[in-house]
Amino acid sequence: MIKNSFYLLLIVSSMIHANSLYEFESLEDEKRFYSLIKEVRCPKCTSGSLASSNAPVSEDIKQKIIELIKEGKTDREIKDFLSFRFGNDVLYNPGFNESTYFLWITPVVFLTLCLLVFLFRRKS
Amino acid sequence: MLIEIAHFLSILSTGLFLLCFLFSFILDAKDIFAVNLISRIYSRGFLLLISSFMIYVWLAANDNFNVLYIAQHSNTNLPLFYKISSIWSAHEGSMFLWIVFLGLWGAVYNSFVSNSQPLKAKSIGIISIIAVGFLLFLLLTSNPFETILPIAPFNGADINPVLQDPALAIHPPILYLGYVGFVIAFSHAIAFLITGDSSIKWENLVRSWSVVSWVFLTIGISLGSWWAYYELGWGGYWFWDPVENVALMPWLAATAFIHSLRVSSKSSLLRIWTILLSIIVFSLSLFGAFIVRSGIIDSVHSFANDPERGLYLLGFTGFLIITSMILFSFRLPILSSNKTIAALSKESFISINNIIFGTLIFSTMLGILYPLIYEFLYEQKISVGAPFYNAIYIPTTILACLFLFFSIDSKWQRGFKKSFLVTPMFISVILSIASTFVTYYLLLITDLWILISIFTGSLIIFRYLIVVKDYFLNNKYSNPFSIIAHLGLGILVISIALNSELSTERALNIKMNESDMYRDYKITFDDLRLIKRSNYDSVRASFLLTGPDGKNIELSPEKRKYFARGQVTTETAIHLTPLKDIYMTIGDQLDDGSWIVNIQFNYFIRWIWFSAIMMALGGSMLALSLVRSKQ
Amino acid sequence: MNIFIRLILILIPIIFFSFFYLYINDDDYYPGADFRVIDMPKFEINDLYKDQRFTHLDLEGSYLINVWASWCITCRVEHGFLQKLSDQNIPIVGLNYKDDKEDALNWINKFGDPYKFIIHDLKGRLALDMGVTGAPETFLLHNGKIIVHYRGEVNKMIWNDVFIPIINKEDIFNND
Questions:
Q1: Do A52 and A109 belong together in one domain?
Q2: Contact C38 A85 (CB under 8 A)
Q3: Which of A119, B34, B266, B282 could lock onto B27 through a cystine, CB 3.0 to 4.6 A?
Q4: CA distance B252 to A108
Q5: Closest Cβ opposite residue A87 in set C34, C130, C134
Q6: Does B530 touch chain A (CB under 8 A)?
Q7: Residue A49, SS3 per DSSP
Q8: Is residue A4 part of a domain?
Q9: Do C2 and B325 touch (CB under 8 A)?
């Protein structure tokens, strides 16, 4: 029995930091958390969100997010907090600002232009 | 030594393919003796290639660790199936497989298609030169035939445990078969453009080949998604990972292509679109190969970052695509049709479909490239992920589905019947509004986009159900492949919407022999044991779930530590019900002895893959009917 | 009109592939280097050796802050270079990240101490505030602001290509 616990400890302690408890004050908070961690990139992994990572730094960031949710911070404030410390690329939504207008608008322009060309070429 | 023979055979086959290409362009394609010669050279070339590959498979199956690649990726303890699948687990071997499949498609085509087919010689030639390009890439920069001499290692490195999985083992071959299959369409398109004879109906020559390739792609992508779901432990099925996106784009282009092909083979309309799409599909497949293997985009899929390989692939892929586009734009006049597309005809809807799919491809490409461009210009990093792709795909797919709905009642080369208010369309609309209200009241869903998705999916499903009713009761013929595949699409849209809205998860904290409640289920932690296997140790936690209906479910997730690389993996435990999956994994043990237990309810997730199977089924049936009727 | 369309069809792939060619050949960019300027977070943490408390006020002027741990293998490799920097009178402060105190002290005793002082960030809270994702990472602190954040091992090449240009530009460490 003791030997088994020893093995358990070996396996578990190979992850340096415990996959710790997520405690929320409301269902709403829990939902916000699970939704947020899908939009935040794991800063240490090659690719993937916090939701799909159990790297130690991911766990730390998740705990911090829970803390911030408890403090009453909005989603925007939490995202700003993280991008301030880890860089803009930690957010999967690059935002809608001058350097990203092109990203969001071109698909719409592309679709509209093609449809218009199609409609007008048929008329002529 | 066998490996040297295999190496030599690959070199010889490269030579023969080169010869085949040269002959196909020098000799007169109208001379039947020339075509016979070209065909024979190709089949000899392929014979050498497949022999080389078979030797390689034999060496892998027999643990020949003199071969560097086999030593790096295989191991004596692996079952035979995984010894062989380890061949395509990394760069050199998977490139080899890709080339073999490319040659294979050409070889099957070569055997089944008569030498009197006007485009055959040039098409075989084009397939050959593409094979040559990739073979040179393989032999010069990514040689799988490298050896460790004189003494082989005692045993190979252990394969990544995550790859020792049946679904993941067959996912690359099926996907590759899909990608390279479009070389048939591509080579015919190019051959057609070169000959410049607009009376040749190349479209009719490639339909069955293209549809079969599309089916492989559909299945391959679904397999990857399904595997990721049950293996990785996060419960997601699509991550908008760059390499997933790069696999999705050829599929989008292929779907648009087979629809456009239908029109062009029937009439002279949309020929420009169809040719362009055939170039785009294959180009995107090549581009995908380039992106994954050059390592310039970070992804969990990417192989080693190697600029030399990247540059070669870039150059070769670029050469193929740029010359194709030059040829295409040069021959634009011969493709124009003097017929106009009738308003609200099926052809017009398929044109619009091409535009919509083109937008999706364009947006996905933009999303993949934007971080690179941004980094190049501003030397800063950004990420483009799910929020962007969801924002683009959801409205666009809904738009496509709406157009599909209208297209069901459209006719070939003429417009709509005006009196549609008393027709099935109207009935479908009513039924769909009803079903949307049902979800609104019963499932308490208020998200507007989810409701729109359900409405749109229902439109398609109800309309096609009426088509099925007419088929059996009123003997009104309708294309059965289209019915099945599009029903699949309707189910896909609704399943994705419901899955994203209804699924929930929680991280519970339970001590041994205690229980907790989650959504009317009582979860009791009733066993914890240590399991020792030859290559890993595992902690298995067993839980008894008692549902609101009183039924008992036993789930046993595990955490495994593999010895060779010290890797820890989670094994999920999943319980399937018709409407949802109950999905559990275990986290770590806390200081007070309790365990973190992750539980998810994933609604309608099986329906998502079921709908993909339906689409693949529709495609397979179509392919079968095309093969039977045409050739 | 027709010629225009044809030209576009050919130009698009050419531009596309040229971009990739340039991108692949663009060598000088170090992905681990972050030059965004942010304020050094306020903190109050124990020293590793004794129970002396250090705060952000102890970091006036210019310092290197090196994130390390006894469980970090790369840190051992980096250690030699840090010792060299320390010998050149470059002030380095150690941030012991998520490490057991005993293990950290043993590590220092075994390999040497290049640091002016070491703060013991057991839970990694300060590290999180600084945007640390693991070890080793090195920060250049100047007048209360982080001006360089490098993720990864600092060796001669990285020091010369990433840190020196900024050090020269801001004229830091000119007392040696």
A1: no
A2: yes
A3: B34
A4: 18
A5: C34
A6: yes
A7: strand
A8: no
A9: no
Q: What is the CATH number of the domain that holds A68?
A: 1.10.8.640
Can you list the pairs that B230-238 forms with residues at least 24 positions away whose Cβ atoms lie under 8 Å? B230/B572, B230/B574, B231/B162, B231/B165, B231/B167, B231/B168, B231/B572, B232/A52, B233/B570, B233/B571, B233/B572, B233/B585, B234/A51, B234/A52, B235/B503, B235/B505, B235/B572, B235/B583, B235/B600, B235/B602, B236/A51, B236/A52, B237/B605, B237/B608
Q: Look at the block and give the residue holding tokens 């992106």.
A: B291
User: Could you tell me if A89 and A41 lie in one domain?
Assistant: yes
If one counts the domains in chain C, the total is: 1
Chain A: residue whose CA lies nearest to C33 = A87
Number of domains in chain A: 2
Q: What is the mean pLDDT of each run of 10 residues along chain B (631 residues)?
A: 92 96 89 92 96 96 91 86 90 93 96 91 95 94 88 77 85 94 96 90 92 96 93 90 91 97 89 94 89 66 65 90 93 82 88 96 94 84 93 96 92 74 82 94 91 96 94 86 96 96 92 90 92 87 91 92 82 93 92 90 96 97 89 48
B242 CB within 8 Å of a chain A CB: yes
Q: Across the interface, do A43 and C133 touch by the CB < 8 Å criterion?
A: yes
Clarify whether residues A28 and A83 are in a common domain: yes
**Residue A86 touches chain C, beta carbons under 8 Å:** yes
A16 contacts C71? CB cut-off 8 A: yes
Looking at the structure, do residues A74 and A112 belong to the same domain, yes or no? Answer: no
Which chain C residue has the Cα nearest residue B296?
Answer: C24
Residue C100, domain extent = 29-170
Residue A65, domain extent: 21-93
Q: Do B596 and A19 touch (CB under 8 A)?
A: yes
Cα Dmax for chain C:
80
Q: Is residue A119 part of a domain?
A: yes
User: ipTM score of the complex?
Assistant: 0.87
What's the average model confidence in pLDDT over C106-134? 92
Task: Show which of residues 59-78 on chain A sit within 8 Å of chain C, judged by CB atoms.
Answer: 60-61, 64
Residues within 8 A of A (CB atoms), B 22-81 only: none
Asked, for residue C15, whether it belongs to a domain, the answer is no
Kindly state whether residue A31 falls inside one of the protein's structural domains: yes
Same domain, A39 and A57: yes
Task: For residue A6, tell me if it sits in a domain.
Answer: no
CA distances from B129 to B18, B278, C116 (A): 6, 18, 64
Give the global pTM. 0.92
Residues on B contacting C at a C-beta cutoff of 8 Å: 294, 296, 307, 310-311, 314, 317-318, 321-322, 325-326, 328-330, 332, 372-373, 375-376, 379, 381
CA distance A26 to chain B (A): 12
Same domain, A63 and A101: no
In a domain, C126, yes or no: yes
What pLDDT shows up at residue C29? 67
- Domain holding C40: CATH number? 3.40.30.10
